[in-house]
Each structure stands twice: as structure tokens, then as C-alpha cells.
């Protein structure tokens, strides 16, 4: 395990952030605050001048080697969560850069960990930026390579070809309907799913509650005149229930949700072929 020692006592969620970045370079890493420990030492800080310019600095020291990185950005926060997010991005920027220098490894997705890159791309586009500006933002603010930035642009063009109003869909919602039953419980599964053994009426009780929730959600959406883009039945394995039970859910969905004729896609997850029957395929 590679130990990385940072020079100040960051809170645990910051340590997690540094650890995710360190794991891009090492098979297993541990970020700690104890300067007495042996390992890779990184002095890291963010300072602000009187004009509101934030400057991130990082210096990595090991043995007789030293690597440094600096990144500056104008403060744009409003003093709330936005400020914390900006600081984390600046810390991540210089932390990643000194590790790239130290290891000789280049991370083409930059500081992105635990985020879908297209979500970030669409966010910048919805803010009114053109594609060239978004490309530069991704490269400058997130250290994403030019190749990956251009890949995201290509994906956006394909997506807009299929959904021309993609960037205007923020006022609509997508609905997930969970049916947490499977024919059997697989040992590797971490989803909240249960073998469908029909004992004590628990399947029927769950479905009764699900009908009621669909009606309530439909009422809430109708009162607020909110449209639905897509509906997804997931699980578990939704096709574990009987065909007539699935038909009843469809009926409640169509009776309750507004603008059903304008919903673009209704998907039912069917990950277990042994749950598919002719009746279910016709539902």
C-alpha cells in the first residue's frame, strides 16, 4: 500500500477525495495527515489574494526528489456549497499534477472521479457556452485531455441527433419504479433485492403499496404540470412478478401519470431470461 502524507488535517470527505485521485496512480493507496509517517509527502494549500484570486499550490517530496504544481482561478463562489466545490477542484488540480509528475502517468480524464463526464459537459452547455468554450473549460478547470474533450463533443452531437431538445429537458423528470424481487438471490448482488418466494403475502403487500405510490407521484406531477421524459422499471428483476401483476402496474401508471402520450421511453429491465413468458412479452 502506498502511503501519501498531506501536510494538514483535512476532514474525512477531503481525504476520500485525495484517496480517489491517488488510486488513479497506485493499486492501493492511503492518504493520512501524520507527518511522522514514511511515504510520499505532499504539502498542499490554497491561498486567496485581495483581488479574490485563488492560488492552489502543491509540492511533492520523496527522498531527494521534489515536484511542484500551481493552479489559479478567480473566486466565483457565493459563500455556500459552491465555494467548497471550487476549493476541492483547485486542490484536486494541483494534487493530481504533482502525482503525474512523480509517476510519469498522465490521466486523460483529469480530476474526474465518481462523475459521468457527459453530465459535466451538458452542464456547461446548458449554461450557454459554445462547444469550443466547453472544451477549454474541461481542459483548464478539470485537466481533461484534448482527446477526451473532443470525444465528449462527439457524443453530444450524436445525442442531440437523437434528442434535439436534450438541453431543454431539465424541466422534465424521469421516473424509476423499483420492484425488488428476483427468482433467486445471487450471492454477488448488492442491490436491495429479495427472492420472490410468495410467503406471507409480502409480494402482494409490496405491490399494493407501489400502486399507491404511483398514484401519489402522479398526483404530485399533475398538480405541478410536470412532464415525464422516460420511465424505467428496475429491480431486482421486475419480470419476476406475474404478467397480470405487471399489467396492473402499467394500468395504474397510465391512469396516474400526466402526459403519458408524450413519454419517450418506457423500459422494463429483464435481466433473467427465465422470468420471461409469452404473456409478459406481450404486456
Walkthrough of the structure:
By secondary structure, this protein is an alpha/beta fold. It has helices spanning 12-22, 81-103, 117-126, 131-142, 146-162, 202-223, 243-256, 278-282, and strands spanning 2-6, 29-32, 40-48, 53-62, 65-74, 173-179, 181-182, 194-195, 228-235, 265-268. Strand 9 (228-235), helix 7 (243-256) and strand 10 (265-268) form a beta-alpha-beta unit. The longest helix is centred in the first third of the chain and has 23 residues, at 81-103. The radius of gyration is 25 Å and the shape is elongated.
Q: Characterize the main sheet.
A: 5 strands, mixed
Strands side by side in the biggest sheet: 2-1-3-4-5
How many helices? The count is: 8
Write down the CATH class of the largest domain: Alpha Beta
Stretches where pLDDT falls below 50 for ≥5 residues? none
Q: Determine the structural class based on helices, strands and strand pairing.
A: alpha/beta
Please indicate the count of domains.
3
Order of helix and strand elements from N to C terminus: EHEEEEHHHHEEEHEHEH
- Radius of gyration of CA atoms, rounded to a whole number: 25 Å
Q: What spatial form do the alpha-carbon principal axes imply?
A: elongated
CATH topology of the largest domain: Transcription Regulator spoIIAA
Helix content: 40-55%
